[in-house]
Design a protein that fits this description.
single chain; mainly alpha
Length: 145
């Protein structure tokens, strides 16, 4: 009979023991979850820093792109001005050759080989393949005979 009187206490002790074991297991899971949360928060912080660094790099590159665009625009304008000037000079030489016989004689004078080399084998002011055509400086037809 004594066992029957102790049975409810033994059952309650067993239930408490099971609950204590479950509490320890769940506490371990909670600790693991807290550690995982801390690890993920640290990872998010690292990614946010990387993202901020990349944003700063993008801002620097965008700024540099604007500066480069200004330089390209200026260089394009300068190149167009140089082309216009070269065209005007070529036209002025052509007009001078057509209107001034002394200038035509001078321009038709053969260039020495040493001077031709300075212009890559072409006559100055003539960048076309017809630079050695008859009547142009440095051409075979314009050499005195």
């Amino acid at each position: 009979m004594t066992w029957l009187k102790l049975a409810p206490y033994l059952v309650m002790a067993g239930i408490l023991a099971v609950l204590a074991i479950l509490l320890v297991v769940e506490r371990g899971k909670a600790d693991d979850a807290i550690k995982e949360t801390e690890r993920l928060n640290a990872q998010v912080d690292g990614l946010l820093k990387i993202n901020a660094d990349q944003g700063a790099a993008i801002a620097r590159l965008t700024n540099q792109r604007q500066i480069d665009d200004k330089f390209v625009t200026a260089l394009t304008s300068d190149l167009a001005a140089l082309r216009d000037e070269a065209g005007n000079t070529t036209q002025a030489l052509s007009d001078l050759r057509a209107t001034d016989p002394d200038a035509k004689t001078f321009l038709d004078t053969a260039l020495p080989d040493s001077v031709k080399r300075l212009y890559g084998g072409k006559a100055p002011g003539n960048s076309s393949p017809s630079a050695s055509a008859p009547g142009t400086p440095g051409s075979a037809a314009s050499k005195p005979r």
